[in-house]
Amino acid sequence: MIVPRRVALRSLFTVAVAAFTGGTLARIATTPREGSARAASDASVESFDSFEPFDEMYRGRHIRGLVGPSGEPLVLVDGRPLHVMRRADGGFLTPIDHYESHATPLAATRAAVDESGSAPLTRYAAAHGDHPGGSPRGLHT
C-alpha cells in the first residue's frame, strides 16, 4: 500500500512536535528553581513561628488571634472561630473573602470583618470546603 504524501507529512509533523514538546517538558521538570515548593513550605513554617497574637476591637467587633496547637493562627471574631488559610504566595485569606490575599492573619481578619459588616459568623466560617445548607461566604442570613 502506498501512503499518500499528505498523510506521511502530517505523521512526520506530529512525531516532531511530540518529540520537541516531550524534550522541553523533561528539561523544565529537571531544572531546579529558586522558588521551589520546599522553599515555600519552609517559609510558611517560619511565618507561623513568628505569628503575633492579637486582641482588639475593630469596627465594633472583638477580634482575637491566638497561636493554635500546631503553631497555626487561630482567629475568633466575637468569640466565633474564623478559618484563616495560608496561600502559596505567603499571604492569608478567609472563607469570607476567598479571592483577596492579605499579608498577615490580622489583616485577613480585618478584611473579613469589613466584608461581613454586622452579620454574625456561622459555624461554616470556621471550616474550609463544602458549605451544605449554609452561606458560602460564612455569613448568617
- Name the helix and strand elements from N-terminus to C-terminus, one letter apiece: HHEEEEEEH
Q: Determine the strand fraction and express it as a percent band.
A: 15-25%
Rounded radius of gyration (Å): 24 Å
Mean pLDDT: 76
Through-space gap between termini: 73 Å
Uncertain regions: pLDDT < 50 for 5+ in a row?
A: 35-47, 130-141
Class based on secondary structure composition and strand pairing: alpha+beta
Percent range for helical residues?
25-40%
Described by strand count, sense and barrel closure, the largest sheet is: 4 strands, antiparallel
Strand order in the sheet with the most strands: 1-2-3-4
Structure report:
The chain is an alpha+beta fold and 141 residues long. 36% of the residues lie in helices and 17% in strands. The chain has 3 helices and 6 strands. Strands 1-2-3-4 form a 4-stranded antiparallel β-sheet, with helices on one face. The chain has a two-stranded antiparallel ribbon with strand order 5-6. A hairpin with a 5-residue loop joins strand 2 (61-67) and strand 3 (73-77). It starts with a helix and ends in a 25-residue tail after the last helix.
